[in-house]
Amino acid sequence: MKKIFQRSCCSNIYLKLVWVFMAGLISCQEHNAPAASSSNVISVKTIASTPAIVEVIDTAGKMLQPDSLIAIGKKNALPLPGVYQWKNHLVLYAAIDDLENVQKQTHAAYPNAEVKVYQHPFYNFNRKHCGDTTSAKEWDNIILTANLVRDTALQREYLDYHATQFEKWPEVSKGFCNASFQQLLVYKNDRQLMLVISIPKGASLDELNPKTTENNPRVDEWNQRMKKYQEGITGTGPGETWVFLKQLRIKN
């Protein structure tokens, strides 16, 4: 397996980041990751609890209009939420006090779509795992999604690996610390995974990411073990596993 992906597939730095953390064999056909606008940045000081994810999926495979979800986010989340899109998927990422109410509002706004909620991440890396626990005041967030394979035994193995990663595989989180990553959250709803990567506002993954693997060869072993656990969600192409959701710009 090649350690660095070609840009003809997509940004090799973005892919290598996810490849380091989540799995060995990750590829995609196209990704354009826009810079987050200031209105979509979550301030660490204003998050009272772990943010949640609300996903809207058009079961007919059509693109969904994001205006209603943006309005729901503005009404129910402070600061302004992040809204992301990939094909027939819309995602709201925000600190939400009344998640059940937001879920009901989303069902009402998109009555013919499937609505999924991701509330409690099963993996949570943050700066508390670093020697330098200082956090940036504001973060940019990147969201990706994939499926776990259907084999339930393999799913349990995957979750067990992540439950013990900090103790048995400390090199992985050490790489995140070295790269100044602020937070990595992984959520699960049924087989679907949501990965949220947070970096300091205005920082570049192209610059930060190489630090995750500097003098860190055991990460390659982690990748080899993880690669068998994931596959692409419905709508991905052959050989495509993780997909990046495009962040939409939200006006104040």
From TrEMBL:
Alphabetic keyword roster: Isomerase, Signal
Enzyme nomenclature, EC number: 5.1.3.32
Domain of life assignment: Bacteria
Keyword Signal: yes
Range of residues in the leader sequence: 1-32
Pfam (any one): rhaM
GO molecular function: L-rhamnose mutarotase activity
Keyword Cell inner membrane annotated: no
Ranges in a coiled coil: none
Top EC group: isomerase
Name of this chain's protein: L-rhamnose mutarotase
Taxonomic lineage from the root: Bacteria, Pseudomonadati, Bacteroidota, Chitinophagia, Chitinophagales
